[in-house]
Design a protein that fits this description.
The chain is α+β, with helices and mostly antiparallel strands and 175 residues long. It is built from 8 helices and 7 strands, in the order αβαβαβββαββαααα. The chain folds into 2 domains: 114 residues, Beta Polymerase, domain 2 (2-Layer Sandwich); 61 residues. The strands form 2 sheets. The chain has a 5-stranded mixed β-sheet with strand order 1-2-5-4-3. The protein has a two-stranded antiparallel sheet with strand order 6-7. Helix 5 packs antiparallel against helix 6 and helix 7 crosses helix 8. The chain starts with a helix and ends with a helix. The relative contact order is 0.14.
Length: 175
């Protein structure tokens, strides 16, 4: 996947329409200094933008593989366009997530990225819904919670809400 090309293309779309967006997943982790293999571009935006986002991606040749109120997954037949997954949020979650978004360098671009604490919350939510993600997501969480700027009490609260407080303590002890 040509991350730079895809990220530039979607960034232009969101910017032109004044829609909130941020990169999440592996690209966001890269912006925080964790380089790991990722095969897709994960985005975060407003639930209200879903129809427009899906139509835009389909206009580029992406096939919509799955769509629900909170997610959509898209795959392009050409490898350089790859896969794009989108998380849709609304209400207080939307306000909180985007209040902390900062532009950071990632994949050779300056991209909007949520706070590390919010990335951790998203990882925990995904883990609760799909335990098969545990190996990679716990490795990502270990990295995020050891960042010096992370609010430990906030992240600990996210672990507690997902019923994984014991895992927080385990990850904090690991280096």
């Amino acid at each position: 996947m040509d991350f730079r090309r895809v990220a530039e293309t979607v960034a232009e779309f969101f910017t032109a329409r004044e829609l909130p967006f941020a990169v999440v997943g592996g690209v966001a982790l890269h912006a925080y200094g964790l380089s790991r293999t990722t095969y897709d571009l994960d985005l975060l935006t407003s639930s209200e933008a879903q129809a427009e986002v899906v139509a835009f991606l389909e206009s580029l040749g992406y096939e919509t593989l799955y769509r629900s109120a909170g997610f959509s997954n898209h795959n392009h037949p050409r490898q350089e366009w790859g896969r794009v997954d989108v998380v849709y949020v609304e209400g207080d979650t939307l306000q909180q997530m985007f209040a902390g978004v900062e532009r950071k360098p990632a994949m050779g671009l300056d991209l909007p990225v949520p706070r590390a604490e919010h990335l951790a919350a998203m990882k925990l939510h995904a883990l609760r819904n799909d335990p098969d993600r545990a190996a990679q997501d716990f490795a990502d969480l270990r990295y995020l919670i050891h960042l010096p700027e992370v609010d430990q009490e906030e992240v600990k609260g996210y672990f507690a809400r997902q019923g994984m407080l014991d895992r927080y303590d385990d990850l904090r002890e690991e280096t």
